[in-house]
Design brief:
Elements (H helix, E strand, L loop, with lengths): L5 H5 L2 H6 L7 H22 L3 E5 L4 H4 L16 E6 L4 H14 L4 E7 L8 E5 L9 E6 L7 E3 L5 E3 L2 E2 L6
Helix pairs in contact: 3-5
Length: 170
């Protein structure tokens, strides 16, 4: 792990404010390490700019306090991080998401909170599965479509409703 630390991926101002211990268990540390090695460090090297983690691991108690967060969020497994270019803007975040897609190692890349008529995200959600199959999904969530919408699959699991727009971003 060259550019990121487990502490950086698990620190949370909200957890500290609420008095929640957000220390990841060992299996989650393994997932966070895999996320860094396979996605975050390579994209940081490719971008040549610092990347800030705005949300990484969330223990189940913390995740339950995040409005709109799914109970089966990959954040609770240490498989996901929300990231931005440090001291950058929406265009930088767009390029960050494109760089992840071009590098090809990801489970999901979600361009979060984009405008209705553009693809400029407030942040990028990226995930990587250490075990199982990585889906290589590229999605966007449009700002103003309300809080992160939820819907039920036949399995009963809550999923995030967003738009899949594939390789059209490049």
């Amino acid at each position: 792990m060259q550019f990121f630390t487990i502490h950086e991926l698990s620190r949370s101002h909200k957890a500290a404010t609420l008095g929640i211990d957000n220390t990841p268990p060992n299996d989650v540390v393994l997932n966070l390490t895999a996320l860094v090695i396979n996605v975050l460090d390579p994209v940081r090297a490719a971008m040549g700019k610092p990347i800030r983690v705005t949300s990484g691991y969330r223990c189940p108690e913390l995740n339950a306090r995040i409005p709109g967060a799914s109970s089966d969020s990959q954040h609770t497994k240490g498989e996901a991080a929300d990231i931005v270019i440090a001291k950058g803007g929406k265009w930088d975040n767009y390029l960050l998401g494109c760089a992840i897609v071009r590098l090809g190692n990801f489970d999901q890349v979600i361009f979060e909170n984009v405008g209705k008529d553009d693809l400029l995200p407030d942040w990028i959600h990226v995930s990587w599965k250490r075990t199982g199959t990585n889906r290589h999904e590229i999605r966007k969530h449009v700002k103003g479509s309300g809080p992160i919408e939820q819907k039920k699959r036949k399995t009963g699991k809550t999923i995030r409703k967003s738009t899949n727009f594939g390789q059209n971003i490049l």
